[in-house]
Design a protein that fits this description.
The chain has 4 helices and 9 strands; from the N terminus they run E-E-H-H-E-E-E-E-H-E-H-E-E. The protein is of the alpha+beta class. The chain has one domain: Gcn5-related N-acetyltransferase (GNAT) (Aminopeptidase). Strands 2, 3, 4, 5 and 6 form a 5-stranded antiparallel β-sheet that branches. Strands 1, 7, 8 and 9 form a 4-stranded antiparallel β-sheet that branches. A hairpin with a 2-residue loop joins strand 4 and strand 5. Helix 1 packs across helix 2. The longest helix has 15 residues. The structure holds coenzyme A.
Length: about 190
């Protein structure tokens, strides 16, 4: 049987590091985050959102440091696998989506990897970036996890991804573990 995907070091599709590129882990303590009065519509992710999330994934990662050139079909496969448990149990009550007129805008997708909440994907379509969508949804995830008794939220980020700045602003800090290099034979 093939070993399970490993978000930290192993071969695991979208979450895998590119070649020798360096990635590192970060984590933040969960906390109650009051919902801002002026927040727009958002909702928890449901399995039937897979096509919407696949479209978002395809658009969000295109041309970024984590772009693997996936086809729309591969994005859909990845999203379905994520929801089915590829990176641990999908936490639908801590994963959120902003959708406008049937168009995906931003999402925060969380799984339970080896007992620890993992921000598996944070993504916003290019023409909606720098408006606070990702930060808002990650804060909703942090709040949802806190109210369910989870202490920390973890993530893995590729060095040089501008998302690092966002994560730092949200309070994520690098974890003491040595940075993980991609396992040999990684798909990307
Ligand atoms: C990372 C990502 C989710 C951020 O989404 P977003 O909705 O624009 O995020 P927010 O508006 O909440 O936060 C923006 C903050 O992130 C940082 N940031 C994001 N993109 C940046 C960029 N290109 N250059 C500099 N800072 C950037 C800044 O701190 C920025 O705050 P500012 O606009 O006040 O300077 C989005 O750029 C994306 O989808 N990227 C491709 C997918 C990806 O790499 N995801 C992260 C994988 S670990």
């Amino acid at each position: 049987m093939a070993p399970p995907p490993n978000p930290w070091t192993g071969r695991h599709g979208r979450l895998c590091a590119v070649g020798q590129e360096l990635r590192h882990r970060m984590k933040v303590a969960t906390r109650v985050v009051p919902l801002p009065a002026n927040s727009g519509p958002f909702r928890a992710v449901a399995p039937q959102d897979a096509p919407l999330l696949a479209l978002l994934m395809e658009r969000a990662y295109r041309g970024t440091v984590d772009d693997e050139g996936e086809t729309p079909e591969q994005c859909l496969e990845e999203v379905r696998a994520l929801i089915a448990g590829k990176y641990g149990r999908f936490l639908d009550d801590a994963s959120f989506l902003i959708e406008r007129d049937g168009r995906p805008i931003s999402a925060s997708l969380v799984t339970l990897w080896e007992g620890q909440p993992l921000l598996a994907f944070s993504m916003t379509v290019p023409d909606e970036r720098r408006k606070g969508h990702a930060g808002f949804l990650i804060r909703r995830s942090i709040d949802a996890l806190a109210s369910r008794g989870h202490r920390d939220l973890h993530l893995v980020v590729t060095d040089g991804n501008p998302a690092e700045r966002l994560y730092a602003k949200l309070g994520f800090v690098r974890t003491p573990e040595a940075p993980a290099r991609a396992a040999e034979g990684c798909a990307r």
